[in-house]
Design goal:
The chain is built from twelve helices and 20 strands. The protein is an alpha+beta fold and about 400 residues long. The radius of gyration is 21 Å and the shape is globular. The model has no long low-confidence stretch (mean pLDDT about 95).
Length: about 400
Amino acid sequence: MRTTVGIIGAGPAGLLLARLLRRAGIESVVLESRDRAYVERRQRAGILEQGTVDVLRAAGAGERMDREGLRHDGIELRFDRRRHRVDFPRLTGGRSVTVYAQTEVCKDLIALQLEEGGPLLFEAEALAVEGAEGDRPRIPFRHQGREDVLECEYVVGCDGFWGVARKAFPDGISRVFERSYPYAWLGVLADVAPSHDELVYARHERGFALLSMRSPAVSRLYLQVPAGTEAGQWDDKEIWEELERRLETDDDWRLERGPITQKSVTPMRSFVHEPMRHGRLFLAGDAAHIVPPTGAKGLNLAAGDVVTLARALVHERETGSPELLDAYSATCLRRVWQAERFSYDMTTLLHRAPDATPFDARLQLARLERIASSRAAETDLAEAYTGFPLA
């Protein structure tokens, strides 16, 4: 089996790359180890930056997003029982974000790929990446009980943190930067209308809380819990009571309760692998970097990676110059590190560390007061939240 670009992984990075390449007339094959149902139901990110929204529209994948997605022009910060709204369009020249779950993005891109694109093979497990230093890298894979090989001109690893692509980088060139956090997020889906029309980020002495949504009828809510917590350790009543404590205000706002349909725990970590290219092997998305979810950057970073790579591949085809491909890693990493910085800042601003002192707590409040009282500080948050330039 042969193609121009072999893509490992049918998450949002791999699917969007395949779509961009298809529209540019470049062949690709996507190998996904899971079945279609799994890919279309795994819960991940739900916030799309302005740039990601624009890219999906330009790729012909924005119709349902525009119809069902929820545009948000701000977020609310809560601290000391007070509320402060950050107005995105006012601070960024009109930018916003859209609430549209990763599951829905994947459904849209899968449907387009199967209808218009190149091969998308589910339950096709990539076993390795071979020959990345040469002109014809190979991906041995297993599909429907048989082993085969995909020969490519380029390989793109969009296969997440545990995938095989990053393992093909020689130890001598890989540098890893990472941080683990001593807390996690307990996330729930609830069949109840959101209690606020925009996301609410709450700093509380008992820990962080987030009020989000998946639709006008489904709420997505999170609580900071100790690392290693199991979702089953919290019953529904305890979750609602703790959310009410951490989201409480001095006005008449109230949290609406409803049936909880799903619980999960998300570990918190920061991770960057440098470089993001080795020979004809490129990394994109979680294969190269992970951010704590506080900054809503994971899916958006993946989109930035594949937009950068697609442009570079088109440039090489049209001009014969590998200049943009050679710059891929450095170009992406500039954006990655800004996103890592912002996600770290948001995480340490709003979460209570297990060993936090009264001094640490007052510093958090001082930082929040600065955002609430300084247009410059507020603008920095709004610009980062709505998205760094994609290239």
